[in-house]
Amino acid sequence: MIDKFKAAFKEEAHELLSQLEDTLLELESHPRNGELINAAFRAIHTIKGSSAMFGFESISRFTHEVESALDQCRNGNLPITKDFIGLTLKARDHLKEMLGQEEPPPQATLEEGESLLVRYREFMAGGKTQAAPEGPGSAASAPSGEAAAVPTSREVQSPAPGQAEPAAQTPQAGQAGEPTDRSSTYRITFKPKPDILKDGTRVLNLVEEIAGLGQAAIYAHTEDIPGLEALDPEACYMYWDIIITTSKTENDIRDVFIFVEDRCELKIERISGETLDEEGRAKRLGAILVERGLVSRADLRDALGSQRKLGEVLVEKKIVSRPEIESALVEQEHLKKVQEKLDSSGASIRVASEKLDSLVDLVGELVTLQARLSQTSLDLKDAALSSICEQFERLISQLRDNTMSIRMLPIGSTFNKFRRVVRDLSIELGKEAELTTEGAETELDKTVIEKLGDPLVHIIRNSLDHGIEKPEERERVGKPRCGKIMLSARHSGAYVLIQVSDDGKGLDRDAIYTKAVERGVISPGQEMSEQDLFLLIFAPGFSTAKAITSVSGRGVGMDVVKREIDSLGGVVSLASERGKGLTVTLKIPLTLAIIEGLLVRTGGDYFVVPLSTVDGCIEIGREALEEYGERRIINYRDDLVPFVSLRSTFEVPGDPPEIEQIVIANLQDSRMGFVVDQVVGNYQTVIKPLGRMFRGVQGLSGATILGDGTVALILDVNALALAVQMDGGRKAARGSGR
Amino acid sequence: MSQNSRGASIVLNPSGALIIDRASAFKSDLAEALGKSKKITVDLSLVEELDLACLQILYAARRAAAASGGELHLTGTISSRIAKRLSAVGILRGTPGRAEDFEASLLEF
Q1: Is residue A687 pLDDT above 90, yes or no?
Q2: B104 touches chain A (CB under 8 A)
Q3: Which of A243, A269, A381, B98 has its CA 20 to 30 A from that of A84?
Q4: Mean pLDDT, residues A35-45 taken together
């Protein structure tokens, strides 16, 4: 049982670490964003708590110190520098490594952790002196206005049972728990009268008790405390703004104050149901201030008109005091958190991805079985059976679409890790580059997304290493020092187009040509379209880099890209202008599991051509075929289209029939014909991977099982065409060499 | 309460429960110290309880010191019970153990 929880902890921790990475990278560009600092702190804090709970003590110890450092940043005592981000990213990687190990981790890991912590301690020691003049109370910590700033009070929350750090919690806490749809949020202003302490009332206990009723954010006002001389030592000067989200009623809250009702000002307002504004965003600071009656709408309009941070303007104009702004910011932060919790708990459930995979497998089996049923019903010619069969088919196709849509994920999840790649690599290479992304919400099948990771890393590394120039060189040619890499994704029919563009030096057409001739891929003087020439960079071992770096230049990498994209049934294309940059476009099918295919037969073998690539089919007699002779080019819709015979390509035994069919397939920017014996028809193809022995076979992307149980191979027309062309190229090169 | 003079600065070492019963005395001690020196340090290591009345006095003393161009600082290891308590009622950010952090984490101190 405990293992199950441990697995859940690890899963959650991995997720938090990936969020942390995004947050840190974001923080690097916006080091003053309090919300981001808080998010980083929360991620580490949660890992610390749950790791201790499940006995991962070394993780808990490590995170404890990282958390302390982040807490210092949160309080403004430690500046957020590039080095600090770098260190914390390393700490994040270290945690990831520790998650993969058993407790206790090996000595080497512990030593690595210790060396990171030593650097943290140095930071904290150095940060204190640096940040001293900016300590709390100085101008540097002035309210930051409309944008949510670092909340100045601690968010108090009921602890989960067994949570490692039951700190800051109240004895009553623990039952009211997480916000749910049934919870309401209240704004409580509790202002004790000065004499309340004299009869022994424990004001702090009351506040604690309220906090224990749910998730609370508390702001304690200390501004009324006078100087020592004027102070009555037994009077109460402090008062509280408490924002609480709870399932308790207003009466339950009032009950807490029942014995002090006459010795305090108590205001309880319900603010639930309006945690978001009309556009669905967290409520603006201005709206909160107006609701609290601190600012009139007219004043708000004036202040907003000044184009400066609202908080600052209002404090400057003495419309509200700084603590009032701080308190409103605490409320804003609280509402945002509550909303986030609701968003994440209500609408979706978390399912292990293996379950989804097995669901898709089962649907695949169903589709296969349904094909058999249709075949049988066709043979039996029974009207009742065919009618059932048709309904069955419709249902299964709905089921298939539904299942596939469950597996769709936004591609943004992989985009994020590339920001880290760009950051680390540009430092390593001594270059400056930034990655911008677009279309992160574009959805793709989960398996496709997983397989896209490596190719995209290779493309981006290639762009950084060979494309983007060194900062000095960029300045010399009149480009900004910092290079740009743009990663974008968008839908286009049954495909997703993923583009990686850089503003580097672009591809060197001549260098590629020379290299290709050198390697015997093309013959000297051979004419080649620019696109075909560029595509040669994807050939195994092909690199024009003059020097081999640790990053690239060995010619491995780009061939991996091609192979992976081919295996996805995708297409790679390149556009480049010398000196201006390179754009790599990947055209990827939305799903890998089930596709529409055209079933064809050659001899006793069946093949499936993905329907999305099929342009048309033509019939051709033996005589005509021989007439085309060696050249093997046919006139199709006023276009000269080369064709190959599947029979000879795959060495299928037997003689071809008198009349054959040519399936014309669309390649990247050309067409190619494939001669087959017979076109059987449209076929719902459940893609099964090929066995290990056959994975290297060029031109095949998988296999499928037909209705009668025979296996059909799925053609990868692009790879097949390339294989045929390369084969032809080599023959030509050999021929000219003779 | 014991007092130590270290050069020009004065260190106060209150101990036990710093609660309303001792508030008047605590105020006088601080006022006296402020009269003698511009630099006051309050060592909270031995304090087992700190209630609202005495906390307010610390705030007041800090403000008085600042107003007269002096300084008041907290030092020592803070009992985790006190830190948790103050944190739960929104007066303290986090639950720091060391006094320097405690001082920095006290809201508007």
Answers
A1: no
A2: yes
A3: B98
A4: 86
